[in-house]
Amino acid sequence: MKTVMGIINLQEDNSLIRELTDRRVVESLPFAGRYRLIDFALSSMVNSGIQNVGIMLPDKPRSVLDHLRSGKDWDLARRHDGLFYLPAPHDEESRRRGDLKNFYYNLDFFEHSSQKYVLLAGGSFVYNINFNELLRFHQNTNADITMVYYTAAQEAAGRSTVIETAENGLVEDIAEKPAIYDGSKVSMNVFLMEKRIFVEMIRYSYEHGGQDLLLDGIIRRADEYNIYAYEHDGYVTHVDSTASYYKANMDILEPSVWEELFMGENSIYTKVKDEVPVQYKDTAVVKNSLIANGCIIRGEVENSILFRGVTIEKGVKVKNSIIMQKCDVQENSLLENVICDKNVVITKEKWLKGAQNYPLIVAKNVVI
């Protein structure tokens, strides 16, 4: 995969998850106790042997820059190639919306790279993929573009790209839908193509008034390309709303999902933070939960995820909840179906309960 350059596009819609993305992009959301969503796409690229990765930065990139830094934790702090940040153009330079302008203003980076292929991915999907098989499929089919998809096992709301394919994988139709149904073939926003096709697509689409790379560069010009689809049959979920973020974290508590994502041949890497082990006191009761280092547990935790440095005091009951870094839940409080953002303090004897499919969200740095 040294002939492949990776591009992770962080220009994604966050309108359905604004409660958690006021100060961060979707891709930098904390996930599964110690990770961020972008870790899955980036780690899959690194595990596949890709050594040159460009990050298409959003308008507010601080959370991404703080997490990725030099790329050392992903072995991308290199003298040649490595991790590159591709900034968005200033608003006064272009009033056009969409991600296409960002690609256009960074064309020189793509053109001057030494790799033959470009692997373009979003950063809000959770998966663990070896892209070497995708490259072989792309070469064997002689495709112009190969897109990765999964087959939906149930209905779900949310804007998605749905495809129809022939038996040999040739894409016959691509459309954006407001919902998906059981059996739908859903794009994972992963595309592999030669660099020359990628550059031509960006230049033509932008200079002809396009705004969105997927819509204007691929869907509207689908008849001009030989497009094939490659199926990923492992676990995959798209975090594009508060409900999907909550469900994805709850899925991690299933042993089969955890083992597939984190215990397989390819690891998921993240920013390293050294913390002391979890302290389980005499009064602690923990069932089916994921507890990160640095936590102190004196109460009851069931079917929940606790990030680093969380304190659960005596008499507290936490159930079906996500508690992010450095939160403090004080004595005799109850949290059920709740997402607490970073540095939240729940004072004594407070009861918070959300709906089973739509949790209550406590914003960052709030004291209740």
How would you sum up this structure, described in words?
The chain has 368 residues and is of the alpha/beta class. 21% of the residues lie in helices and 30% in strands. The protein has 9 helices and 28 strands. The protein has helices at 38-47, 62-68, 100-105, 107-112, 131-141, 195-207, 213-219, 242-251, 255-262; strands at 4-9, 30-31, 35-36, 52-56, 82-86, 117-122, 125-126, 145-151, 156-165, 171-180, 185-194, 227-231, 237-238, 279-280, 285-287, 290-291, 296-297, 300-302, 305-306, 311-312, 317-319, 322-323, 328-329, 334-336, 338-340, 345-346, 351-353, 360-362. Strands 1, 4, 5, 6, 8, 9, 10, 11 and 12 form a 9-stranded mixed β-sheet that branches. The protein has a 5-stranded parallel β-sheet with strand order 14-17-20-23-26, with no helix packed on it. α6 (195-207) crosses α7. It starts with a strand and ends in a 6-residue tail after the last strand. 42% of the residues are buried. The mean pLDDT is 94.
Per DSSP E runs of 2 or more residues, the count of β-strands stands at: 28
Q: Please report the distance between the alpha carbons of the first and last residues.
A: 50 Å
How many helical stretches?
A: 9
Radius of gyration, CA atoms, in whole angstroms: 21 Å
Fraction in helix: 10-25%
State the low-pLDDT regions, or none. none
- Form type: elongated
Please tell me the overall pLDDT.
Answer: 94
